[in-house]
Amino acid sequence: MTAEVEQVSEVFNTILVLDFGSQYSHLIIRRLREFNVYAEMLPCTQKISELPFKPVGVILSGGPFSVYEEGAPHVDHDVFKLGVPILGICYGMQELAWINGKGVGRGEKREYGPATLTVEDSTCPLFEGVDHSQVWMSHHDKLHALPTGFKTVAISGNSPFAGIAHTEKDIFGIQFHPEVTHSLQGKTLLKNFAVKICKATQNWTMENFIDTEIKRIRALVGPSAEVIGAVSGGVDSTVGAKIMKEAIGDRFHAIYVDNGLMRKNETVQVKQTLDEGLGINLTVVDASKQFLDNLKGITDPEKKRKIIGNTFIHVFEKVATEIKPKDGSEIEYLLQGTLYPDVIESISFKGPSQTIKTHHNVGGLLEDMKLKLIEPLRELFKDEVRHLGQIMGIPEDLVWRHPFPGPGIGIRVLGEVTPEQVKIAREADYIFIEEIKKAGLYRSISQAFAALLPVKSVGVMGDQRTYEQVIALRAIETTDFMTADWFVFEAKFLKNVASRIVNEVDGVARVTYDITSKPPATVEWE
Ligand SMILES: Nc1ncnc2c1ncn2[C@@H]1O[C@H](COP(=O)(O)OP(=O)(O)OP(=O)(O)O)[C@@H](O)[C@H]1O
Ligand SMILES: O=c1[nH]c(=O)c2[nH+]cn([C@@H]3O[C@H](COP(=O)(O)O)[C@@H](O)[C@H]3O)c2[nH]1
Ligand SMILES: NC(=O)CC[C@H](N)C(=O)O
Ligand SMILES: [Mg+2]
């Protein structure tokens, strides 16, 4: 069955980005997709004979290494046998030069920041519309000589080889980074490469994606099997559920787990929106006791996350055995709302990044998991998922909902999670979000919540001494959640929220506002 299932990269003309570990590698993919060309990233160590698809062009990314160093990563030379255009960016260009003559070494000084490009060969299609524009440099090494078979096509003040091209083949190298927005015509250059040179079709649209994905799921699941889905009411899993529903109708069973760590009124609202609003029949499983029992006495954040992740899986496996598909088979698949950033993180050449915290991911935590995963969004970025949600008729409110982590309030009550502590955090959170919505700020903020700190502080209310806990409010602005800054509220707004929380929520003596960016902090407190 699986062999006949076409992958997205087989359906859309795909540009392959081979990642040498640059912090900007994923931006190359973002930029290409912005003009509707599909791109995927694989580690630079990928063996070309084992490529899962045939790309229409290859981009070699930048990277932190020096090509001449021992142990530096190198591309499989079979990449030249693919017969498709190749573009090397920074380290990628140095790699092309290393392979074709070894004329690469350390420059006298580092070049980091803006430079102006002068195109010397106006016939080179890569640089059409890019002449005299600002480009962004970030390198220490440089080409000391033109590689064999290449000519210079562009220069900058500091880089006599800012752009090079092979004299016969469609192979190009650039020293700057077209993928960052500081390279003002960088997107034009990438478009020239993908569309003019590689002739990639610009058909990567969410409308086309839906059709492809629905076909893919039908082929994968077959004509009679049934599937369960972990659906939280967040935008990712709701869009995933909607796609499943369109693909296999009532053979899809959406399961929402009330883990006792959800926000106020959330379970009722999610059930209503999915059932009535979207026609997705949602089963609510109340497992709150199981989660809270398992969390008893646990204060270590990582242990809490693992316990919550494992409990989710146990709940899903149990639910899966309770559903009896009409064709007499057993439930084999579990839908999950994994996005491309999660995938990139795990395939990156640098390997899985150091674990800052274990993100709960329904599939990620049990090695002997029986259910196989269906992840329809695993090629998409969050804004693509939001766009998809809009096309599929998912209500605006849900499309723009702030992300809510799987472990929920469990990682927003610092220290031991008890029903009493969850209640305090939940009530405070509700007031904060209510005020944000009232002030018309919800869409300007990427994510906001209240965390409960298990420290006591003295206060005075109605002439009485109080000795209660502290709420920390957090609101951030970010595009990708990898870095974030705190949101600047007016003092009046914070004053009102603080006063409401202390007055209306029993157990809180003080309210603080978290003004730490990420890094050095993270978004969540645990
Ligand atoms: N309470 C829950 N019940 C069922 N599944 C859940 C629950 N919480 C999380 N999940 C599953 O875990 C996945 C990861 O959670 P995550 O919060 O990243 O995504 P989301 O909730 O779909 O969207 P968002 O990031 O916008 O909150 C979800 O896509 C969903 O499959
Ligand atoms: O589904 C999730 N499961 C998790 O375990 C988890 N931990 C953090 N987050 C969300 O990820 C984003 C970045 O959060 P951090 O800076 O705290 O890592 C923020 O949006 C966080 O809310 C999670 N989402
Ligand atoms: N950004 C890059 O790709 C840098 C490449 C190489 N490490 C240099 O310093 O030149
Ligand atoms: Mg969520």
From TrEMBL:
A GO cellular component entry from the record: cytosol
Any one Gene Ontology molecular-function term assigned to this protein's record: ATP binding
Keyword annotations: ATP-binding, Glutamine amidotransferase, GMP biosynthesis, Ligase, Nucleotide-binding, Purine biosynthesis
Main location: cytoplasm
GMPS ATP-PPase domain location: 204-401
Cellular compartments annotated: Cytoplasm, Cytosol
Domain of life: Eukaryota
Catalysed conversion reaction: XMP + L-glutamine + ATP + H2O = GMP + L-glutamate + AMP + diphosphate + 2 H(+)
Pfam (any one): NAD_synthase
Entry's EC annotation: 6.3.5.2
Enzyme class of the recorded protein, top EC level: ligase
Binding site for ATP: S232, G233, G234, V235, D236, S237, T238
Pathway as given in its UniProt record: Purine metabolism; GMP biosynthesis; GMP from XMP (L-Gln route): step 1/1
PANTHER family xrefs: GMP SYNTHASE [GLUTAMINE-HYDROLYZING], GMP SYNTHASE-RELATED
Functional summary from the UniProt entry: Catalyzes the conversion of xanthine monophosphate (XMP) to GMP in the presence of glutamine and ATP through an adenyl-XMP intermediate.
Subunit and interaction comment: Homodimer.
Protein name: GMP synthase [glutamine-hydrolyzing]
Species, as recorded: Ogataea philodendri
